[in-house]
Amino acid sequence: MRMSLAQRVLLTWLFTLLFLIMLVLKLDEKAPWNWFLIFIPVWIFDTILLVMLIVKMAGRCKSGFDPRNGSQNMKKKVWYLTAMLLKLAFCLALCAKLQRFTTMKLAYVFIPLWALLIGGMVELGYNIFYVRRD
Asked: Average pLDDT by consecutive 10-residue portion of the chain (134 residues)?
């Protein structure tokens, strides 16, 4: 099953809207829910993305696959997987901090997010300066 761009955009907006509604309810103290429950739309969306990414990565392992005719290189997919795991680590650490499960300093909670942002800037710089030289 292949999702069209419109379906992916609609799915992204839907999960973002659900997360924002739940976040506002929590911040307005109208919903006394656990922070991990507030992030359920994020967890579901990330799970969908991870499954899609792993299926695409596994497609390279099937017989008859010619790596010279591949659509994307494996390094980019590994970066996407790493980025998803960094985002997951940040969300889990943030929820644990907000729920007071840990006494970790807030600066340590943001380390996966900083690593993700730095990696994204490196990826952007690489795509601008090395890949698109004409």
From this structure: 80 94 94 92 92 82 61 75 94 93 90 95 88 58
Euclidean distance between CA atoms 90 and 14, whole angstroms: 22
Token pair for 34:
């656990």
Distance (Å) of CA 45 to CA 19, 23, 63, 67: 10, 16, 30, 29
Which residue in 106, 97, 99 sits closest to 32, CA to CA? 99
Whole-prediction pTM: 0.79
**DSSP per residue, 63-96:** TT--GGG-SS-HHHHHHHHHHHHHHHHHHHHHHH
Residue boundaries of the structural domains of the chain: 5-132
